[in-house]
Every structure is written in C-alpha cells, then in structure tokens.
C-alpha cells in the first residue's frame, strides 16, 4: 500500500504510477541510449537522483530527462541536445501511459554519427517507451483521512461498515473507547458517516480531515 499524505482537495480520483526501478538500452547508429525510470513524489527526489546519475555516468554525452508530479507539475531537459528532441519526447512517453510521480532519465553516449533532428527525437521517445514496463504500472485511488471514536460494543458493526465502503484502517488506539484512523474514498465519505452514525445510534464521534492519500484499492 502506498501512502503519501496530501492537503489539497483538487486532486484526481485515480493516478497511474510505477514504483519499481527499471532500465533499458536502445542503440541507434552507434549511439547508446540508457533509459532509467524512478518513482518520485517531489522535486527534491528528482534532483537527488539526477545528481547521482550524472556522477555515475560522468563520461556520457547527455543526461536528458523528464518527470511529472501530481497536479500536472512537469519538468524536462534536453541537456544540450537540439531543442525539443529529448526532454519533451521523454515527457511524451510518460504522458502516453498517463503516468504520474515518475522520472525518466535517458543517458546518451554519442557514437560519432549525427542522427538528425527527427531520428534523434524518435530515439529518445523510443528509449523512454522501452523502459516503461506496462506490467509494473500501478493504479492508485484517492482516499480521505477520517478518525472515528466508538464504544467497544460497536466494534464489529464498525468493521462491517468500513468493509462496505472499501475503507482502509491505518491505525487504532484503545483506552476507554476504541479510536480508529481510516481512509475512505472522498465520494463515499458522507454516506459512510451517515451509515456509521445510524449503526452506532449516533454515538460515534467522527472527524473528517482535509488530508488525502493515494492507496491501492
């Protein structure tokens, strides 16, 4: 389960991402293109990865990249290649699969033969496509954070309601009452609250937080 706490309600109901690192190699007219894909959740992560890649492949001709974060935050770089032939083409591959929170870097070792603008753009695009493994794409759904305090005699009913609404129990505490921290899809929050209040004869204390997360269903 993936959890990344967010605070904005202007978020998509679902995102597609990749968690596993992957690498592929594409060759065109003696130039070698090493493509790598990483899961990221903020700009700082992307910059840290890029620094490490540049140091590891210090002798490469170019380190081109693109990444896309939530709310369509985008960044790309041609790193000295002709404008529009590298970073934008890598971003095109990310958007082809509708991915979010991913960084793709394509490291080029120039082989001595110029490819021309068209073939060069195609090489970067194909490199980025190749490194995206469709089988490793993960679908995540948006959930909202809720805390619930109930009397012990309603615990079994509480679990039934949570299951009915495909909720996720993140944590629990027990003292004089049982307190649960759960995640529910935003579109189901009101109905969940009403059903839980009905089930507990109005005794449940429910707090709906303006905090959101993405999780596997």
Q: Layout of helices and strands, plus pairs?
A:
Blueprint: E1 14-18, E2 22-28, E3 31-39, H1 43-56, E4 62-69, E5 73-77, H2 87-96, E6 102-109, H3 117-131, E7 137-150, H4 155-164, E8 168-174, E9 178-184, H5 189-199, E10 205-215
Characterization of the model:
Strand 4 and strand 5 (73-77) form a beta hairpin. The chain is built from five helices and ten strands, in the order E-E-E-H-E-E-H-E-H-E-H-E-E-H-E. Helix 2 packs across helix 3 and helix 4 runs antiparallel to helix 5 (189-199). Strands 1, 7, 8, 9 and 10 form a five-stranded antiparallel β-sheet that branches. A five-stranded antiparallel β-sheet has the order 2-3-6-4-5, with helices on both faces. 28% of the residues lie in helices and 37% in strands. It is of the alpha+beta class. The protein is elongated, with a radius of gyration of 23 Å.
Structural category:
alpha+beta
N-to-C order of helices and strands: EEEHEEHEHEHEEHE
Continuous helix count: 5
Mean pLDDT, all residues = 91
**Sequence stretches where pLDDT stays below 50 over 5 or more residues:** none
Q: What's the helical proportion of residues? A: 25-40%
Task: Give the end-to-end Cα distance, rounded to a whole number of Å.
Answer: 8 Å
Strand portion: 35-45%
- Computed Rg: 23 Å
Key features of this structure:
single chain, 217 residues, alpha+beta, five-stranded antiparallel beta sheet, 28% helix, elongated
Q: TL;DR of this structure?
A:
With 217 residues, this protein is of the alpha+beta class. It is built from 5 helices and 10 strands.
């Amino acid at each position: 389960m993936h959890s990344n706490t967010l605070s904005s309600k202007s978020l998509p109901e679902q995102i597609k991402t990749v968690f596993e690192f992957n690498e592929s190699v594409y060759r065109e007219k003696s130039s070698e293109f090493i493509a790598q894909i990483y899961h990221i959740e903020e700009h700082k992560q992307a910059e840290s990865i890029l620094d490490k890649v540049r140091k590891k492949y210090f002798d490469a001709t170019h380190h081109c990249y693109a990444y896309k974060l939530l709310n369509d935050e985008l960044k790309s770089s041609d790193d000295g290649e002709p404008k529009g032939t590298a970073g934008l083409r890598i971003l095109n591959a990310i958007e082809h699969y509708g991915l979010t929170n991913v960084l793709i870097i394509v490291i080029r070792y120039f082989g001595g033969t110029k490819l021309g603008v068209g073939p060069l753009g195609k090489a970067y695009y194909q490199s980025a496509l190749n490194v995206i493994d469709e089988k490793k794409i993960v679908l995540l759904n948006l959930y909202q954070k809720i805390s619930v305090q109930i009397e012990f005699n309603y615990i079994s009913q509480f679990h039934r309601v949570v299951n009915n609404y495909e909720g996720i129990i993140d944590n629990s505490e027990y003292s004089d009452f049982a307190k649960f921290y759960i995640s529910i899809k935003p579109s189901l929050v009101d109905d969940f609250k009403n059903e839980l209040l009905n089930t507990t004869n109005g005794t449940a204390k429910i707090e709906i937080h303006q905090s959101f997360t993405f999780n596997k269903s």
